[in-house]
Amino acid sequence: MDRADFVQRFGGVFEHSPFIAERAFDAGMIAEPLTALDVHDALAMIFRTASADERLGVLRAHPDLAGKLAIAGGLTEDSAREQAGAGLDRLSADEHARFTELNTAYVEKFGFPFIIAVRGLTKDDILAAFETRINNSRDQELDTACQQVEKIARLRLESLLPETH
């Protein structure tokens, strides 16, 4: 697989951040046969060694959960599928208002959106995590958000590639 094909296929695994796939490929970290584990290890290493501003940019590229982009149909295909799987596309008016309130408070406090790997979670699970994590320190939440971004990337890769050789 050449660089353009690799970036086309995996550049969105870390939300709107193709630079991660580009750097992994350019560093010679990608070898065939591609597996979810190997590609994730390479991409996660690039993410972890990116500058603090670049990592923050990756976090900020994520949409609010059940936010304006979701309502307007402006999510990436992966994000829309993930949020729908957790029932975030079917919130009551009161639930939507609570998510909006928490999204706003979270972004004001931390400077990036609340990020959680929603696959396998219900809207109640997500809301409970939201209400707990909003009380974290910025450093705690930055670490947690980065871990969640890596988990989301792993789950996306597992849907694209076999897990092992």
Short account of what is shown:
By secondary structure, this protein is an all-alpha fold.
Architecture overview:
With 165 residues, the protein is mostly helical. It has two domains: 1-61 and 150-165, Oxo-4-hydroxy-4-carboxy-5-ureidoimidazoline decarboxylase (UraD-like, Orthogonal Bundle), CATH 1.10.3330.10; 64-134, Orthogonal Bundle (UraD-like). It has helices at residues 3-10, 18-26, 36-49, 52-60, 68-72, 77-85, 93-110, 123-133, 138-160. Helix content is 64%, strand content 0%. Helix 1 runs antiparallel to helix 2 (18-26) and helix 4 (52-60) crosses helix 9 (138-160). It has nine helices and no strands.
Write the layout of secondary structure elements.
Elements: H1 3-10, H2 18-26, H3 36-49, H4 52-60, H5 68-72, H6 77-85, H7 93-110, H8 123-133, H9 138-160
